Amino acid sequence: MSASDTALRPVPQVIAHEVTKPRETKKWVDWITTTDHKKIGIMYLVLTFVFFILGGIEALLMRLQLSVPNNTLITPEHYNQLLTLHGTTMIFLFVVPVMAGFGNYFVPLMIGARDMAFPRLNALSFWLLLFGGIVFYFSLFFQPPEAGWWSYPPLSSILYSPSGGQDAWIFLIHLTGISSLVGAINFFATIVNMRAPGMGWGRLPLFVWSILIYAILLIIALPVVAAAVTMLLTDRHFGTHFFDPTDHGSPLLWQHLFWFFGHPEVYIMILPGFGMISEIIPVFSRKPIFGYKAIAAATCVIAFLALLVWGHHLFASPLPVVVLGFFMLSSFLIAIPTGVKIFNWIATLWRGSLVMTTSLYFAIGFIAIFTIGGITGVILAIFPIDWQLNDTYFVVAHFHYVLMGGAVFTVFSGLYYWYPKITGRLMNETLGKWSFWLMFWGFNLTFFVQHALGLSGMPRRVYTYPPGVGWSTYNLISTIGSFILGFGILLTFINVFRSLKVGAIAGPDPWKGNTLEWFTASPPPANNFDVIPRVRSVEPMRDIRRQIEHDTGVAQKTGGSEQFARA
Amino acid sequence: MRSDAKNDLHRRGARGNRRRRLALTVALILCGSLLLAPDAFANFLTPKSGGSPNADAIHSLYLIVLYIAAVIFALVEGALFYSVYKFRAKKGAVAAQIHGNTRLEIGWTVGAALILVVLTTITFIKLPSILNPPNSSADGLTLSGGVLTASTTEPVPPNGKSLVICITGRQFIWAYYYGSACETDPYSSKVAYSYQEMYVPANTTIVLHIQSLDVIHSWWVPSLGGKVDAVPGYTTYTWFKASKVGALYHGQCAELCGRLHSAMTALVKVLTPAQYQRWVTQQKALIADQEMQVLALRKALIATGNLTANLS
Q1: Could you tell me how many helices (H) and strands (E) chain A has, helices first?
Q2: At A115, is the secondary structure helix, strand, or coil?
Q3: What ipTM goes with this model?
Q4: Measured between alpha carbons, how far is B75 from B227 in angstroms, rounded to an integer?
Q5: Annotated catalytic, A398?
Q6: What percentage of chain B's residues is helix, strand, coil (to nearest 5)?
Q7: Whether A187 contacts A103, CB under 8 Å
Q8: Which of A293, A318, A346 sits opposite B83 (nearest CB)?
Q9: What is the mean pLDDT of residues B17-38?
Q10: Contact A248, A241 (CB under 8 A)
């Protein structure tokens, strides 16, 4: 059966069936033994959102402690543990793997494949992530690590961090590192080899482009941090002195190795989010993406430059001025492709016909927030200015604008967009918009004043501060904002659970999507597609819809996104 | 039925407008209250400065960058919100099917690059005034002949004369050793030292040699310039030249160094050169006196058998 046979059916456009009757097993056995990319994707998403909640609670506890000066709610020891847990959780257990979750679910569907290239390896990735998280969080019952997610030696050495919590942290990096590495190889093999007929590199959906680059960056950056934490482990327990200044080792070596991984990691975290936005904005603007090639090229250029900018984390370290100058210029350069992306997204909205769904709200909120993070990033790249702002709340504000914008708002946009595909039901739009506005204002209230905190001299990672130095008002505002933000996030979680039962039935293609995941039932059957159509453009689903309309003269209905059009 | 739906849509539209207006009002009130709160007004948009020329130079560089950033911010966010406002789906409106525009792509790529060229130029114009210390003023501390150093990292004023203060960080206190002997012989009785509070003569170029005894710390007094990490195994350098006699500058360790990181504060008190010299003499006498007392106590303890004599 060819695509054109399918195309003759007016509504629905899609046919896909379960090929075999599923074997009768217990449901939980089904889940833990699955190699289906969709089930693994769902497990990834559920697990990472659990970690997101844990990381969020840790953040709120820190904000509570900082709400008033000289607060004694949390001891300095627990505060340092919280900041280590928060950073590590959000980076290694939420943002990086949540992108793998979306990638797992949607990359095979978007390229018209029936599964990932190595389904068992895919399952291994997930279970390694779970065990990494368990190893790390079990330190809560003993002594959690206190040296921060960057764990600079000598503070993280056995002398100053004698507890096993630091070793649990090292083990977490190893396990989640192998998980991501195996997953990255899998993504790479899948995208390179398993695309639908006709889907050349110039027709690859931009989300898939971003997952491809995400995978390449992971493959380059992760071995470096794996080596670095192994060296830290042998320093701590087996008598080596890689980072020990009292024995000809260098603490600076760690900083270089860690940030050689750590800065690409930032782009590992936000590029997939950029990819989601590049899919979502054209769908809800009812317009093709503006400058497809420019966006795909910008993704590659960002990835290349991401490997050359690690030194901007070391501006206050003992480095010669010429090195500082190099890293300032390389960090400047990375602003160009990033700016190009922002301009292209706005140009896609321009003269469109914007269907104001919650998903698009989050996408636009992301651009608004991320622009501020990008601008403060350029300010921080100027190393003499960084000497004043490095390690202050200005930096905290900057990277939360980048990461909350680039990862959380994009992931929420993606969640509202793809939830109907995963569950077959639409999420509630009213609740979604309440959630968006609370998150948007809560976020800006929390983090905008933190720029001012940093400028007025408040360093990061302090567990308290004295009254009368001009920091109290800002901190109180920031804490209030963080709880508004938290409440907004809670609304989306309520929405997710509620919509599972009461959400409107979505149908295969509720948004008039552009890509192939909408060419199958919601949720898709185990084999994804009965027929894999030939791809003729970046928007294969749109071509299919157009052909049906042409052949039948019947306008294609969707699951109801017309309701968002304003009269 | 149909008109009902239409009314409903209208009502929803009106409610949406009201909600939007409410959101805008709340935002305005929040911004307004920020501007009006005197506590919040200090350093809302600019880094601290006013203590030393390098901090002032960073401040003025930051201001130029901030103005450029503000324009870019306004343009990008303006275009974004305008398109969201203007191009919402309406009945009958059809989206323009544009795939791109190569000229526009090249235009904004080159435009972004040009802005960065401007920023680079401004930075390198301003850089010498941040990196290189000036000479001490005539009313500063009289310093002996300058020492020529081969160091490429240590800042040296044009005439080579500066007051050297060695800073040592440790969990969780800063120690200061005054005078150029601090580098070679910090524990001799010729060197005055103090903890946490640093005393400096006004209008004198002061070069700091920064080290750490244990973990990484970061020296930072915002009004006196940028921060410099204290990394064990390395010596790092910075300088400042304070002019306001009687001023007291607050600083704080800026790199997580352990549980009491937030307690690792620093104070810099600016004295007249004469006051400074008096303070140094007095401090040396105090230190000598304390050492005598410790020595006497040791002798007494050893004599009564409460302390074993250390033969080395």
Answers
A1: 18, 0
A2: coil
A3: 0.90
A4: 33
A5: no
A6: 45, 15, 35
A7: yes
A8: A346
A9: 66
A10: yes
Coil/strand/helix, residue A506: coil
B66 touches chain A (CB under 8 A): yes
> Which residue has 């590659």 as its token pair?
A300
pLDDT confidence bin for B148, thresholds 50/70/90: low
> Which ranges constitute the DSSP H helices of A194-320?
206-237, 251-285, 292-306
Contacts of B81 in chain A (CB under 8 A): 368
Of B273, B272, B258, give the one whose Cα is nearest residue B172: B258
Helix or strand or coil: residue B98?
coil
Residue B82: enclosing H or E segment and its boundaries? Answer: helix B53-86
- Tell me the pairing of strands B193-195 and B173-178: antiparallel
Residue A489: closest CA among A19, A60, A162, A47? A60
Judge if the upstream peptide bond of residue A523 is cis by omega within 30 degrees of 0. yes
Alpha-carbon span A335 to B112, nearest angstrom: 8
At residue B311, does pLDDT exceed 60? Answer: no
Strand-pairing partners, residue B210, are B167, B236
The whole-number average pLDDT for the span A382-407 is 95
**Global pTM?**
0.91
Nearest residue to A157 (alpha-carbon basis) of B242, B100, B171, B223 = B171
Q: Encode A150-176: b = buried (16+ Cβ within 10 Å), e = exposed.
A: bbbbbbbbbebbeeebbbbbbbbbbbb
Q: What is the pLDDT of residue B11?
A: 53
B88/A389 touch (CB, cutoff 8 Å), yes or no: no
Per-residue pLDDT tens digits for A7-36: 444 444 555 666 666 667 788 888 999 999
**Record: fold of B163-302:** Immunoglobulin-like (2.60.40)
A351, A355, A391 member nearest B254 (Cβ): A391
Tokens matching residue A384: 């003499």
Question: B residues 17-46 near A, CB within 8 Å?
Answer: 23, 26-27, 30, 34, 37, 39-40, 42-46
Q: Can you name the residues that pair with B249 across neighbouring β-strands? A: B268
A383: helix, strand or coil:
helix
**Residue B80, pLDDT above cutoff 50:** yes
* SS3 annotation, A140-172: HHCCCCCCCCCCCCCCCCCCCCCCCHHHHHHHH
Tokens of B49: 């400065």
Q: Establish whether A63 is a catalytic residue.
A: no
Q: What angle do CA A410, A412, A416 make, to 5 degrees?
A: 120
Q: Which CATH superfamily is domain A43-564 in?
A: Cytochrome c oxidase-like, subunit I domain (1.20.210.10)
